[in-house]
Model the fold of this input.
Amino acid sequence: ATFSMTSGTDWTCDANEALRLSLVRAKDDKTSLTSREAYEGFHPTFTYPIYGEDEKIYGYNDLVIDLKFASGSLATYLHVGYSSKLPINTPSAGVIDDVEGKLRDFIPGDYSTSLPEFLEQVESDALSFRPYGEKIYSYSRPASCLMRRRLEKENEALNTEKENGNGRNVVGITQVLSPEDEETVEFEVYHSTWATPGFREYHRRMQLFILLYIEGGSYINEEEDVWEFVVLYEKRKRRHSPEISTYHFIGYSTLYPFYCFPEKHRMRLSQFVILPPYQQEGHGSALYTSIYQYILSKPMLAELTVEDPAEAFEDLRDRNDLKMLLSNQEFMKEAFGDGGSNGGGKVAKVKTRTRPAGSGAKGGKGGKLGPPSDKAWMEKWRIGLKIASRQFNRLMEMLIQRSLD
Ligand code: ACO
Done:
């Protein structure tokens, strides 16, 4: 390649732009829902743990770091491409970033560098891959709903592009119906620990997403035995062999149980990520609900706490906790008296931080939430519902706010 230090390029690339992630499905697992670009070539939010504080890579033009994962097994392919690169060892050029070397420190060394080989592995892994651990939760959605939501999301993204003046002549995408849209898509959550055979290696492949999407995220210590994991998958019938199901990674969460006097454990949710192609479709809420249900089901677990929640996660948690409380008739009845008449609002619409009131005042006649609130009553429910004190108090405040005019 030719190079010039004065050619108008500064040989610096934005690392978040350069890194392109893909979740690759086998041919028979591609449907009208998945054939869209959204699964291929999405970008990280953060790369500073890998490429340094300013998230810039020096020494290349048109750098593309192509990092592909098999959609289920997360088998990995890496290719670094560019139109030109400064020659190494040129004194005037400075230190050229070792793009692959820096990434190699964070991913298992068994990645493929041959695309044909990788695509072959995608095909075979699709048939052999099964989630690790024990299934603890599942839910399903009509494919048509998912399809509609994806189209909405794509149109939202196109509109944002347009508003940002990114030139392209944008035509809104409209729905194309296909036979698969009649299908129901299943989603399953699996629980595992380090002791689950094969899971340690699997975790080494997925932990990169923590660095790429959680601000301040870092790898957990494999030497600490107590970590627990929940992983969410899409389970899909194959197009041409519907008797076969395949699994596709969506996101996961890590959990750390702490001893809690005198005889129980408090489960701390530590990391939580849903990959971008699947965000804003309710999967984060479902994964959170699965964790909460799991904790409710285990007598030895006293409560769920969250480590240093990001704002988006806090919103998700509030929304789901409120929904749970509002649908608990016994709780609502005791809280507000009057047959819990304050309930029933559509929780998805509750703006937990900004919206002061629900639809009209139905403030409790004799309800335990007061005023004044019955502290002993609150503590009884808090313990029963296994919600951490601070969060429970916030939720009670939100409910009170909501009930005021
Ligand atoms: N139609 C319209 N809106 C919808 C629909 C739908 N069908 N489904 C969901 N939404 C909206 C929700 O109402 C919600 O809206 P809001 O942002 O205005 O509150 C939004 O989509 C997100 O809700 P979910 O879809 O349930 O959540 P998602 O799957 O997008 O996951 C998460 C959220 C986990 C924050 C995800 O964006 C993510 O992984 N981000 C990067 C990593 C991260 O920040 N993790 C948390 C760190 S904190 C910690 O680890 C403890």
